[in-house]
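pls design
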């Protein structure tokens, strides 16, 4: 799907020398800005240099894993003045899969140190499963996202690769976003939770939302799932 008209192509570099490219939709005069992207802190720094951005009204908006990343960025970056989390994923492994998955992760690291390529695999297999049991693995949500990712190329993203390295799971297991959410204690928050989410349990999203003490708003998207919440 092509972008709407009236945008500018922009790019910036992150601290680890990754170039991020995107679209910027300017308003007339200085205006609030919503950032919808990974690498958020460095993108935010770039956005603050734009003349028509009101740096006192910058919002981070993220969906699914991006919602979690946005919240963690807001936890440590006080330049963020508002946060929108759409169906955030808050846990990344199932205890019963831990031992087998960890063994695979360490073997892959050992293999790479011997000069071999990193092991790669799709985030979900045809059964909707992944090694650590992340995000609805083995259930209808995992099956749904498997089909979605396999259709991305046909939907206009010819360079998309439906694979990640095994070490991505290593990083996810060591990441504890629920702890970081405790530091999102001043930024106003809106959370949008799909009623029928099978990848991130709605009750877990609401539980995280209830811990926020600052101004906040919760919206339950009735009849929507994880991949249909924005439709």
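designed seq:
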């Amino acid at each position: 799907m092509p972008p709407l008209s009236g945008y500018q192509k922009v790019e910036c570099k992150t601290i680890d020398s990754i170039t991020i490219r995107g679209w910027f939709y300017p308003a007339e005069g200085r205006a609030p800005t919503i950032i919808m992207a990974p690498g958020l802190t460095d993108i935010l720094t770039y956005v603050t240099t734009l003349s028509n951005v009101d740096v006192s009204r910058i919002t981070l908006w993220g969906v699914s894993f991006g919602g979690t990343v946005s919240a963690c960025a807001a936890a440590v970056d006080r330049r963020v003045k508002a946060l929108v989390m759409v169906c955030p994923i808050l846990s990344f492994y199932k205890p019963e899969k831990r031992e087998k998955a960890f063994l695979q992760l360490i073997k892959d690291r050992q293999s790479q140190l011997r000069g071999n390529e990193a092991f790669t695999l799709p985030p979900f297999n045809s059964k909707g499963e992944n090694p650590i049991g992340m995000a609805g693995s083995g259930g209808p949500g995992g099956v749904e996202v498997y089909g979605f990712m396999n259709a991305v190329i046909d939907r206009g993203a010819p360079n998309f690769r439906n694979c990640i390295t095994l070490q991505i799971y290593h990083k996810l297991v060591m990441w504890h976003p629920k702890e970081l959410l405790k530091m999102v204690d001043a930024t106003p928050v809106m959370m949008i939770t799909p009623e029928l989410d099978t990848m991130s349990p709605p009750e877990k999203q609401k539980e995280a939302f209830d811990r926020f003490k600052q101004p906040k708003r919760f919206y339950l998207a009735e009849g929507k799932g994880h991949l249909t919440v924005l439709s």
